[in-house]
Hints:
Layout: H1 11-20, E1 23-28, H2 48-51, H3 54-57, H4 60-65, H5 67-83, H6 88-96, E2 101-106, H7 112-116, E3 121-123, E4 131-133, E5 139-140, E6 168-169, H8 181-193, E7 196-200, H9 212-218, E8 223-226, E9 239-241, H10 245-257
Parallel strand pairs: 1-2, 1-7, 2-3, 7-8, 8-9
Antiparallel strand pairs: 4-5, 4-6
Helix pairs in contact: 1-10, 6-10, 8-9
The chain binds 2'-O-acetyl adenosine-5-diphosphoribose (OAD).
2'-O-acetyl adenosine-5-diphosphoribose binds at residues 29-31, 34-35, 40-43, 47, 54, 58, 107, 125, 173-175, 200-203, 205-206, 226-229, 231, 244-245.
Amino acid sequence: MDTFDLHPDLVPAFHAILRKARRIVVFTGAGASAESGIPTFRDAQVGLWHRFRPQDLATPEGFLRDPALVYGWYEWRRAKVAAAEPNAGHRAIAAWAQTRDVTVITQNVDDLHERAGSSRVIHLHGSIFAARCFDCGAAYKLPPPSVDAAGTGEAMDPPRCAACNGLIRPGVVWFNENLPQREWAKAEELCRTADLLLCIGTSGLVYPAAGLPQVAAQAGAPIAQINPEATDLDALADFNIRGTAGKIMPRLVAAAMQG
Ligand code: OAD
C-alpha cells in the first residue's frame, strides 16, 4: 500500500476517503506550477516576493506609480507561462476527472490546468492572458509575448486602449482588489458540497482564497494537503502529505482509481 508520506496510522483512512470521494475539489496555488518552471511567490530564494515587493508589482497603486515596471514584469511572466508545459501533477488531476466529479479552483493565473486537459477550472485571481483597460475595462487582445522568458522582466510601456486611450493592465486580481464575484460564489458553493478538498501547493496566506479550506471543513469535508513544506493549512488539514505535486498526484490518482 502506498504510504503517501503520511503517518502509517492515517494511510487506511486516507485510502478509504480517496476511493469513496465522488465530488472532489482541488484547490491549487503557485506550487502546483512550480515543476513546470513557473516561480512561486513565497518560497525562500526562488520565490517572486523574495526579489520584489508585492505592493510594487501586484497592486493598482503600484501599477499607477510605475506602469512600465509592472507591465514588463507581467509580460515576462506571461512569456514564462507560454513557454511552460503542464507537469505530471496537472495531468493527474485532469485524468482523475475522467472517472470522478473533479473541479479545480486555482489561485494561479496560468492556463496549465486547462492545457493538461482539465475542463472545469475556476480562476480566483484572473488570467495572465486576459488584458483590459485600466480605465474603461475594455478587453485588449494581447499579441504573442515578445519578451525573453529567461530574462528578468525589463520595464515595458503598456499599450493604450483603442476606446479611451487608458493604460492596458493584466487581467489578474491584485492585492486590494475584489475577487471576481461569480467565480468566488461558485468556489464557496463547491467547497460546501465537496466530499474531499485537496489543497495543492498553496501557502494558505492570501485571503479570501485561503478561507476556502475552512468553508469545506465546516461543511464536514475531509481536507488533504500536498506540499513539501509546512503551511498555515497544516492545522486544519486531516492529511498533510509532504511532497511535490508532480510526484504525489500521479500516485494519489492511481490509488483513487482503484475504488
Ligand atoms: P505561495 O508562493 O505563497 O506558496 C507556494 C506554496 O507552494 C508554498 O507553500 C510551497 O511550499 C509550495 N510548493 C513549492 N513547490 C511545490 C511543488 N513542487 N509541489 C507542491 N507544492 C509546492 O503561492 P500561493 O499560495 O499560490 O496573489 O500564493 C497565493 C497568492 O499570493 C497568489 O495568487 C499571488 C500571491 O501573492 C497575487 O499576486 C495577488
